[in-house]
Amino acid sequence: MKVLVANLGSTSFKYRLFDLTTETQLARGGIDRIGQPASQCFVEIGTHREEDSRQVLDHAAAVKLCLEHLTNPTWGCLKDVAEVDGIGFKAVFAGKLSGIRRVDETLLTAMEELSDIAPAHNPPYAKAMRQLMQAFPGIPLVAALETAFHETIPAENRAYAIPYQWNEELGIKRWGFHGASHRFIGGRIGALLGRDDLKVISCHLGGSNSLCALKGGVSQANTLGMSPQTGLPHNNRVGDFDPFALPVLMRATGKSLAQLLKELANESGLLGLSGLSGDVRDLEQAAASGNKRADHALKVFTQSIKQYIGAYLTVLEGADAIVFTGGIGENSQRVRRDVCAGLKWAGIELDENLNNNLPRGAEACISTPTSRTAIWVVPTNEEIVVARQTAELLKDE
Question: What residues contact residue 371 under an 8 Å CB cut-off, 6+ apart?
Fold first, then answer.
């Protein structure tokens, strides 16, 4: 069975094509900085790699480019798109329609109705799904909702202190997201350490960010709440924010609630703090050159991560491992260093030499021999999780 997995981030599109008979990856590709003047595009099929920096305006155009690459008559790995047995999407939010399910009108309508909860994700996913349903009606589409992994979170860790009926009747709760990534990390670190009872704090840091408290690979808490705008600061999304500041902003700026919510979802986070960029790579370069706002943004980011690590140490009653993953977690020496700084009292000791000399894309332990909590960098693989879930659903139908 060949499964194409589409992973749409807020500013990125990653895809992989798998042969699930042997879990062999046939192709992988990615498009970064979508909507910017020069997007970064690549595809790898076997030993062949193609790159370009064409502008990709939105996620629908990214999906189209992906299929063009896979069916390229010279170096593609498919003769026809019909060879794909299913397309799995790492979908984000459809409210009570959680779990792994076929993409149909009911699901798409729910995602579109809840676009204000996940404005950076639901609209591009729904648009891409509709485009593919129309263009390739014979290929099953499967949505693996990110919220499914967090259904194990205890009620006391999911509830807001709001009128009880809001939770029961309207689903206002901490849903949690990044389920595929945290599920992969839980399984992978268990395999690496040879245990199935680990207490782990998984740090998914990228365009959007979240921490997850895992016990035996099962989610106990997640920093993302009702929406992907919450929790840690993100590249251009606010993270935690007091809603009672909104009336103050409305009076002071004359802007509507809708306008302010748009700014919180698109012009805040690291971008808003720095006034420069939401990309940590840009901020680290600017901070190294003396840009104080870039440095401030990075400090706010890492301090927020540290605070949640402290909270999750209490949720788990200690941790066997802290795992950094995602584009930032896997590649930023500074972020890992600053997050772990000052935590020796908690038995968390980073080996500076290992951290500074870790090759890009490597999987390794970077804690000192005396650290009570192991510190790991583990590249995530959300796509294989979604591919397995897609294949399992289609096999059972």
Answer: 347, 348, 349, 350
pLDDT digits (tens, 9 = 90+) for 237-290: 999 999 999 999 999 999 999 999 999 999 999 999 999 999 999 999 999 999
Same fold for the pair 2-144 and 179-377: yes
Which residues, listed in sequence order, are joined to residue 213 by a DSSP beta bridge?
201, 221
**Per-residue CA distances from 315 to 106, 157, 320, 371, 377 (Å):** 36, 9, 13, 20, 22
Helix boundaries (H) for 289-325: 292-316
DSSP letters for 239-294: -S--GGGHHHHHHHH---HHHHHHHHHHS-HHHHHHSS-S-HHHHHHHHHTT-HHH
Q: State whether CATH 1.10.357.10 applies to domain 179-377.
A: no
**pTM listed for this prediction:** 0.90
| Beta-sheet pairing, 48-52 with 100-102 | unpaired
3.30.420.40, 3.30.70.100, 2.60.120.200, 2.30.30.60: which CATH number matches 2-144? 3.30.420.40
What letter represents residue 14's amino acid? Answer: K
